[in-house]
Amino acid sequence: MFRAHIYTDDPIFMVIGVQRTLRALRLWRKITSRFRLLMAIPEKRKIGTMVKWLGFLPCPMHGLIVVQQSKLVRATLFVQQALSGALSVTRYRSLLGFLEHLKVLLSNAKTRMYGLYRPLQHGQEITQGPATLVKIDNRMHVSLNAWVLALATTAVAPVTYALPGTFQSPRRGMAVLLLRCFKGGYAYPSDCLWLPIAVLEFLALAVSIIVFAHLLDSAPHIVIETDSLTTALVLSSDSAKSPLLVEAHALLLATSEYTSLLSGLHSGAKWRSVISTARQISRPITCPVAIRLPSLCSVPT
């Protein structure tokens, strides 16, 4: 019946019913008067079924969140300037803050920022000063172009995109893939053996997903269990930090097998979760197909 959120000095109240709304306004006035809080100018005070808050237009009646067209246009122009190499480090940092603000509208929000923080790392453009122009590498180019497409096609999203996922215990009818990830279990190409063990473990699970995905057509729920903590964290949070894992995760996201699991195209199968476990598999799994990761293996050390 009543809900209140306050971010720093920007409050929003969601109330059902006219009488409750009036009581909420009187109570808020009583609180602000008691603590002598100075309210915003009247032009910024809004009431209705959908009012602007933190730059968005929440619509709780329908479970949606809407962004204004002017903000989408401004973000698109900002991204295009970055792609043309016209942004300094200072303005590029502002762009990242803007995109972090908008990514709540998008699915797979964390992966949208892959590679974009590279210029702000030590030894990169930021080390040369705030006026240095940011150079766009291949990974940044892919991410920024994806943002251009997203900004041109997205103006509304379900509020669930902004809510953290919750883990639920396994239930009947759930398909479980229990995968033991270790360097000796797969026939890796020789040019991939220089990769760190955490990356090789991730690739082992990625290949297993590619191999076994077609067997999950009838599974209503899916759980993948792995003894690789790094792999579990990347897949469960849908985000990676190290450059090599970013590339590996992006390549997995580009496969039809993995995207079909995520989207539920396998006869209604629903992606459940990734669990890190210490359980053992009695024998190593030999991959019957070649690892499709030429771009990753060619990265120099």
Describe the structure.
By secondary structure, this protein is of the alpha/beta class. The chain folds into three domains: 2-47, no CATH class; 69-162, no CATH class; 174-297, no CATH class. It has nine helices and eight strands. The chain has helices at 18-34, 69-83, 89-102, 138-153, 197-212, 229-237, 243-253, 256-263, 294-297; strands at residues 2-7, 10-15, 56-59, 64-67, 156-158, 174-179, 221-226, 270-276. The strands form three sheets. It has a three-stranded antiparallel beta sheet with strand order 3-4-5. Strands 6-7-8 form a three-stranded parallel beta sheet. Strands 1-2 form a two-stranded antiparallel sheet. A hairpin with a 2-residue loop joins strand 1 (2-7) and strand 2 (10-15). Helix 2 crosses helix 3 (89-102) and helix 5 (197-212) packs parallel to helix 7. The radius of gyration is 24 Å and the shape is globular.
Short summary:
With 301 residues, the protein is α/β, with parallel strands linked by helices.
Topology:
Elements (H helix, E strand, L loop, with lengths): L1 E6 L2 E6 L2 H17 L21 E4 L4 E4 L1 H15 L5 H14 L35 H16 L2 E3 L15 E6 L17 H16 L8 E6 L2 H9 L5 H11 L2 H8 L6 E7 L17 H4 L4
Parallel strand pairs: 6-7, 7-8
Antiparallel strand pairs: 1-2, 3-4, 4-5
Helix pairs in contact: 2-3, 2-4, 5-7
